[in-house]
Amino acid sequence: MATTKWTIDPTHSEIGFKVKHMMFTNVSGKFENYDANIVTENDDFTKASIDFSADINSIDTHNSDRDNHLKSADFFDVDNHPKMTFKASSFTKTSDDKYELAGDLSLKGVTKFVQLSTEYSGLMKDPWGNTKVGLTISGKINRKDWGLNWNSALETGGVLVGEDVNLNIELQLIKQ
Q: For a tag site, which of 5, 24, 78, 173 has the least CB within 10 Å?
């Protein structure tokens, strides 16, 4: 059985997230530096081995003060936990182009099992002859499950930062 290695095309991919701010708007962010080791049997992603990591220092929410706070011990504690990792345990087809990506997400020294909805675009060739695949991955996690507990009470009631983090990941993979 032949194996295929895939790499992330960083110019056409984004590892993004959104969190409620002041209980009524969303703040979005992304990680600029990340890597993955993805190997499939032939081109079958249901049998894929997927290991992903992101450099927490590369977090970007379009506000350097907020980014620095997120890197501090109040949140990610980047000095002690510089990477976020995900190791897939399954990639299961649920309907035509819909899949469920499941595995262990590790943040701040805590590992939890997560299930993420995934849309698989199928294989296609770009204008330069490269075989590519597109994946849109989404899901919701509670940041407190990973020890990201910092918050501030609002004078009018409620809290500054929501607990739920919506993951919005767009990946374009290149067949090696």
A: 24
| CA-to-CA dists, residue 37 to 73, 121, 126, 160, angstroms | 29, 19, 21, 36
The answer to whether 14 and 170 have CB atoms below 8 angstroms apart is yes
Q: What is the pLDDT of residues 99-120, one digit of tens each?
A: 999 999 999 999 999 999 999 9
One-letter amino acid identity for 172?
Q
Q: What is the pTM of this model?
A: 0.92
C-alpha distance from residue 75 to each of 48, 68, 117, 176 (Å): 32, 10, 26, 36
- How far is the C-alpha of 141 from the C-alpha of 136, rounded, in Å? 17
Topology at the third CATH level for domain 3-175: Lipocalin (2.40.128)
Q: Cα–Cα distance between 28 and 19 in angstroms, integer?
A: 7
Q: How confident is the model at residue 89, as a pLDDT?
A: 97
What confidence score (pLDDT) does residue 158 get? Answer: 84
CB within 8 A of 9, min separation 6: which ones? Answer: 132, 172, 173, 174
